[in-house]
C-alpha cells in the first residue's frame, strides 16, 4: 500500500446497545477518507457460540481463537477487515434452561451473552474494537446476538425474499415428540433426540445428523430414538406443517461451487461436503414448533405458534450482523448506512473466511451458500452477495480423549481459566496444539510444558538475555545501541528472519496458524544461537573500542529482532506483544505496525529497556492440586479438567499386537478412510478402517509393520466392520505418522 494523505476527523462513538455495552466499545477513533486503488475487503466470520453456558477451551480452539488471529493478521497487512459473529440465542436448549432456572429465555441469553463477550475480550480477542482505529473505511468488529430486534427484522426480510423467489415450500413432515402422562405432546428439536445412526450404526447419533460419519437423515430414519431431555418418556413421530428451503434446486450450483474450492478447503471440509452432495440434497425445514425465536412473517393463523429454525436463523447472522454494524456506525458518525456493501457485494476485491468446528461444516459449505445463491437469483451483478472463499474448519480439541461438552459439563471453562492463568499462555498453547487437520488433546501437563519450555525457556529467555545485556552495556543511563546498524550488520541473520516472515505470512494466508507461529518462534530460537555464537557478554567490561563493537553490534541486531518479534507475535499473543513493545521503548502499539514493515530499521530508542519477565513459570504440581480437588477425587471420581488416570489392570487389558498390512483399499462410503487388511500371524486376518488417506498412499502402507489394538470392540464405520485400531501420533507439524516397531518383529507378537 502506498502513502496516502488522510483527512482526520475525531468522533466519540458508542456503538453497542445497552444489552451488550462494554467499556471497550466506547472510544475515540479516527475516520479516514478512503484511499484510492483496488483495496482488499476481508470478512472474518466466527461460528456463533450458543448462549446456553460459558465458553470452554474447545470453543476457543475450534473457532474463537482462529478467527481473532486471522483478524489481527489481516489488519497488520493493511487490509480493510470486518470480523462478525455473536451469540446464538434461539432454540429449545434456551427454553429448557429457562424452565430449569425459573428465568425467562431473554434473561438466560442476556446473562450468557454478557459472560461470553467478557471472556472473549479478556482472552484478548478484538470484539471490543467495534471500529478500526484507522477509520470507518477499514472496518472493525461486532459481536452481535440473534435476539437483537434488528436481526429478527432482517431474517424475516430474507425469508420473504426466498419465499417470493420460489425457494420455500410448505410441507407436512414427521417430527419427534415426547408424550407426557397426561397425553400432552412436546415437539423435540433434532438435537434433543438421539439413537442409532441409520448409515453407520453408531450409537448416540443426533436426530438429524451423525457426528461419526457425517450422514444426515429424516426423523423417521433414526433407529431406537430416545429423548435426551427425559429418556423415560415415550418418543413418537407426529405430523406437523413447516416451511422447507429448496436445497434440491441448488444441487448443481452447489456441486460446481464445491468443485471450485477443492484447492482451498481442508480435507475434512471437502469430504463432509462431498458426502452431503453424494447423498443428494433435499428440501430442509426452516421452521419449528417452538415459542422462542424469530416469528414467521406469514399468515399468523398457520404460523403464529411456530418460529424460524435456529440453524436457518443463525447462519444469516453473518449478513445481518454486517448490516447492523453499518447502521450503528452511520447513526453515530454520519457515514454511509450501507457501507456494509463494500464487504458483501460482488464486484469488489472481496474475501470471506469462515471459522468453525467440523460439526458446522455443511451449514457453511452447503446451506449458507445455498441461501446466498437463492437470494442472488435474478439480482444484478453489483447486487449479488459474495460467497465464501474458505471454510477454515478445525477438528475437535479433546479433553483427556473425550470431546468437550457444555451439556455434560466435561470441559475446561474459559472464565475460570482466565481467572487463574495468563491469557497469552492459552492462546499460545492452543495455537501450537490447534486441531487443524485432526483431533488434538488438551492436558494440563502439556500446557505447563509448552509454557515453561517454549514460551519461557526459548522465547522469553531470548528477550531477557538481550535486554539484560543492553542494560549492562550502558554506562550513562542511555541506550548504548543508538546509531548502530541493527540487523543490517548481520546479513545472514537478517536473511533468516526475512525467510521466516515470508514463510509465516504464506502460512497465515492459508490459515495454517500452528505452522505460522512455529516459524515466528524459530526467530527466537535462532536469536539464542546468534547470541551464543557472538558472545557479546565477553566484551562488555572492556574499554577497547574494538571490544566494545564486538559487544554492541550483535546486541543491536538482537534488539532489532525483538522489534520484529513484538510485531509478529501480536496476532497470537497480543498482551505480551505490547509488553515487549514497551520494554524496547517503542511508542504507540505493536498492533498498529504492519508485518510487511516488521524489519523496518528504525534507530534504537534512546532510553534503556525495562527488563521484566514476559511470563510467569508454572508449577505442574500446584496446578494439578488446584484443578483436581483432592487425591481422593483423582482416584475415585476419575479425570477432572484435563488429567485422566487409569489403574494398571485397565491398562493391561489393552491387547496391543504387531501386524503386517496385506492390502489397502478405498472405503466405499468415506472419502477420508482406507479399508486396511492386516495379517496378525498365520492365517489370521482382520479389517481395520483407518483415517490415513490424507497422510499415506496405498503403496506406502502395503507391507508395513504396524501396531494395532486387537481387543477393541468391532464397530461399523460407514457400513464396513472395523476390527481394531492402528496406533498413530501427531508429528508436531500438522501430519500424522504411524507408530511402527523398531526392527523386524513377527506379526502377531504382543506389545508389552
What does this protein structure show overall?
With 752 residues, the chain is α+β, with helices and mostly antiparallel strands. It folds into four domains: 9-147 and 311-438, 3-Layer(aba) Sandwich (Rossmann fold); 157-308, Methionyl-trna Synthetase, domain 2, CATH 2.170.220.10; 445-597, Isoleucyl-tRNA Synthetase, Domain 1 (Orthogonal Bundle); 648-738, Nucleic acid-binding proteins (OB fold (Dihydrolipoamide Acetyltransferase, E2P)), CATH 2.40.50.140. It is built from 22 helices and 28 strands. Strands 5-4-3-15-16 form a five-stranded parallel β-sheet, sandwiched between helices. The protein has a five-stranded antiparallel β-sheet with strand order 22-21-20-23-26. Strands 7-6-11-12 form a four-stranded antiparallel β-sheet. Strand 21 (674-679) and strand 22 (685-690) form a beta hairpin. It starts with 8 loop residues before the first strand and ends in a 14-residue tail after the last strand. The relative contact order is 0.09.
Amino acid at each position: 500500500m502506498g502513502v496516502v494523505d488522510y483527512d482526520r476527523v475525531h468522533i466519540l462513538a458508542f456503538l453497542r446497545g445497552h444489552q451488550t455495552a462494554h467499556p471497550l466499545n466506547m472510544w475515540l477513533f479516527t475516520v479516514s477518507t478512503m484511499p484510492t486503488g483496488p483495496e482488499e475487503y476481508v470478512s472474518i466470520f466466527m461460528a456463533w457460540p450458543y448462549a446456553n453456558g460459558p465458553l470452554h477451551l474447545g470453543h476457543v480452539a475450534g473457532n474463537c481463537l482462529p478467527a481473532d488471529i486471522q483478524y489481527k493478521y489481516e489488519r497488520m497487512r493493511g487490509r480493510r477487515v470486518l470480523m462478525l459473529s455473536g451469540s446464538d440465542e434461539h432454540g429449545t436448549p434456551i427454553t429448557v434452561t429457562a424452565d430449569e432456572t425459573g428465568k425467562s429465555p431473554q434473561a438466560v441469553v442476556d446473562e450468557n451473552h454478557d459472560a461470553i463477550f467478557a471472556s472473549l475480550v479478556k482472552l484478548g480477542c478484538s470484539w471490543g474494537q467495534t471500529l478500526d482505529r484507522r477509520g470507518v473505511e477499514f472496518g472493525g468488529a461486532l459481536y452481535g446476538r440473534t435476539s437483537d430486534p434488528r436481526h429478527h427484522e432482517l431474517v424475516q426480510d430474507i425469508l420473504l425474499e426466498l419465499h417470493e423467489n420460489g425457494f420455500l415450500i410448505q410441507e407436512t413432515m414427521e417430527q419427534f415428540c415426547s408424550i407426557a402422562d397426561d397425553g400432552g405432546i412436546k415437539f423435540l428439536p433434532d438435537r434433543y433426540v438421539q439413537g442409532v445412526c441409520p448409515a453407520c450404526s453408531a450409537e448416540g447419533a443426533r436426530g438429524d445428523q451423525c457426528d461419526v460419519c457425517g450422514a444426515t437423515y429424516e426423523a423417521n430414519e433414526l433407529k431406537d430414538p430416545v429423548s435426551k431431555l427425559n429418556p423415560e418418556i415415550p418418543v413418537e413421530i407426529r405430523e406437523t406443517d413447516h416451511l422447507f428451503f429448496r436445497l434440491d434446486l441448488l444441487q448443481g450450483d452447489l456441486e460446481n461451487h464445491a468443485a471450485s474450492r477443492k484447492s482451498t478447503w481442508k480435507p475434512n471440509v471437502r469430504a463432509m461436503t462431498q458426502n452431503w452432495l453424494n447423498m443428494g440434497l433435499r428440501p430442509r425445514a426452516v421452521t419449528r414448533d417452538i415459542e422462542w425465536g424469530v416469528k414467521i412473517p406469514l399468515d399468523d393463523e398457520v404460523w403464529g405458534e411456530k418460529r424460524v429454525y435456529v440453524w436457518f436463523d443463525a447462519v444469516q447472522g453473518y449478513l445481518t450482523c454486517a448490516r447492523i454494524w453499518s447502521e450503528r456506525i452511520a447513526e453515530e458518525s454520519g457515514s454511509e448506512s450501507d457501507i456494509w456493501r463494500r464487504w458483501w457485494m460482488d464486484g469488489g476485491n472481496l474475501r470471506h473466511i469462515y471459522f468453525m468446528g467440523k460439526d458446522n461444516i455443511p451449514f457453511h459449505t452447503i446451506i449458507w451458500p445455498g441461501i446466498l445463491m437463492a437470494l442472488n437469483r435474478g439480482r444484478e451483478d453489483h447486487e449479488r452477495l459474495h460467497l465464501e472463499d474458505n471454510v477454515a474448519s478445525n477438528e475437535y480439541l479433546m479433553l483427556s480423549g473425550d470431546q468437550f461438552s457444555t451439556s455434560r459439563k466435561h470441559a475446561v471453562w474459559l472464565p475460570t481459566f482466565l481467572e487463574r492463568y495468563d491469557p497469552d499462555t492459552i492462546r499460545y498453547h492452543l495455537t501450537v496444539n490447534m486441531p487443524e487437520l485432526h483431533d488434538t488433546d488438551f492436558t494440563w501437563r502439556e500446557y505447563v510444558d509448552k509454557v515453561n519450555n517454549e514460551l519461557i525457556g526459548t522465547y522469553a529467555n531470548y528477550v531477557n538475555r538481550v535486554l539484560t545485556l543492553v542494560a549492562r552495556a550502558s554506562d550513562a543511563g542511555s541506550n548504548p545501541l543508538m546509531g548502530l546498524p541493527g540487523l543490517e550488520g548481520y546479513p545472514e541473520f537478517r536473511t533468516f528472519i526475512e525467510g521466516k516472515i515470508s514463510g509465516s505470512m504464506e502460512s497465515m494466508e492459508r490459515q495454517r496458524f500452528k505452522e505460522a507461529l512455529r516459524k515466528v518462534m524459530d526467530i527466537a530460537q535462532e536469536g539464542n544461537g546468534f547470541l551464543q555464537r557472538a558472545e557479546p557478554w565477553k566484551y562488555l567490561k572492556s574499554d577497547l573500542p574494538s571490544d566494545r563493537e564486538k559487544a554492541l553490534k550483535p546486541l543491536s541486531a538482537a534488539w532489532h529482532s525483538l522489534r520484529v518479534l513484538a510485531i509478529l507475535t501480536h496476532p497470537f499473543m497480543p498482551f505480551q506483544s505490547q509488553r515487549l513493545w514497551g520494554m524496547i521503548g517503542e511508542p504507540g502499539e505493536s498492533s498498529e505496525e504492519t508485518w510487511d514493515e516488521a524489519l523496518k530499521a528504525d534507530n534504537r530508542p534512546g532510553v534503556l529497556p525495562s527488563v521484566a519477565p514476559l511470563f510467569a513459570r508454572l508449577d505442574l504440581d500446584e496446578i494439578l492440586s488446584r484443578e483436581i480437588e483432592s487425591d481422593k477425587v483423582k482416584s475415585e471420581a476419575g479425570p477432572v479438567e484435563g488429567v485422566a488416570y487409569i489403574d494398571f489392570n485397565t491398562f493391561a487389558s489393552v491387547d496391543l499386537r504387531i501386524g503386517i498390512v496385506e492390502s489397502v483399499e478405498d472405503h466405499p462410503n468415506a472419502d477420508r478412510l482406507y479399508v486396511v487388511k492386516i495379517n496378525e500371524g498365520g492365517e489370521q486376518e482382520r479389517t481395520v478402517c483407518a483415517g490415513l488417506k490424507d497422510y499415506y498412499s496405498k503403496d506406502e502402507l502395503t507391507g508395513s509393520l504396524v501396531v494395532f489394538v486387537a481387543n477393541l470392540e468391532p464397530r461399523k464405520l460407514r457400513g464396513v466392520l472395523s476390527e481394531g485400531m492402528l496406533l498413530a501420533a501427531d508429528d508436531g507439524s500438522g501430519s500424522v505418522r504411524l507408530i511402527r516397531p523398531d526392527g523386524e518383529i513377527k506379526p502377531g507378537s504382543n506389545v508389552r
